[in-house]
Amino acid sequence: FLYYVNSALFGADAQFFYAHHLLSLFAGVVGVYALLRQWLPAHHAWLAPALLLTGVPTFQMAQQLMVGHYLYGLLFATTGLIFLIRAVRAQDAAPGTALALSFASAMFYGLACLCKEIYVPWILMWLVIPWALKSSLKRMVVLVVPAMLVALAYTVVRLRLFGGAEGYYGGGARSWRHLVSFKACPSSLVHCWGTGCEVWRPWRLSCWP
Q: What distance in Å separates the CA atoms of residue 87 and residue 92, rounded to the nearest whole number?
């Protein structure tokens, strides 16, 4: 979806694609900072985002337009956690506000999952944070159920669309033969498909048919 938006807005002009990409990178880092500020003072909260922004992996990501959905997923996931924290803290003073914040939290969690499936396991954070903030079990369930339903719905739809848990290309290992056959591959740069394994070399040497 992100790339359709870029194409609609910027056409084939790559400089705007990269400008948007850098903006999304900055937004993801700001999301991490805002999340840490829920617990830490500003002079401590900026340390992790600074390390993230100046790390070697980030320099690589800054050049790769194809990871933009990861960055937006990070922004949505951190925003969802911020809403969850606010919901837990608002339980006593404003139960109605807390419930609304929990729904907003679930919505942002869902957006993060739609960006990239690596954010699906973040549902564990939705379970841990209310417990860490010493929310009662009853209140914790009320706040966490919306996000749990989102996670369940995403899992069901994904399994339905892809016909299983193997991903987009049907490349999951279906038997031990695929795992053992790695020994026959002359390189660690291996890409596995449902029908075999290929080493990414110029001549694309096949390890098995």
A: 10
Structure-token pair, residue 21: 């990409």
192 within 8 A of 178, measured Cβ to Cβ = yes
User: What spatial distance separates the first Cα and last Cα of the chain, rounded to whole Å?
Assistant: 35
In the structure encoding, which two tokens stand for residue 55, read together? 């790390």
Q: What is the pLDDT of residues 91-140, one digit of tens each?
A: 877 888 889 999 999 999 999 999 988 999 999 999 898 888 877 777 88
> How far is it, in rounded angstroms, from Cα 114 to Cα 116?
6
pTM of the full structure: 0.74
C-alpha–C-alpha distance, residues 15 and 138, integer Å: 51
Strand, coil or helix: 26? helix
Check: CB of residue 125 under 8 Å from CB of residue 80.
Answer: no
If we measure between CA atoms, which residue out of 197, 199, 202 comes closest to residue 188?
199
- Assess contact for 71 and 61: CB atoms under 8 A: yes
Q: Contact at 8 Å (CB) between 29 and 52?
A: yes
**What letter does residue 174 receive in the DSSP assignment?**
-
**Could you tell me the two tokens for 200?**
């990414």
Amino acid 95 reads P
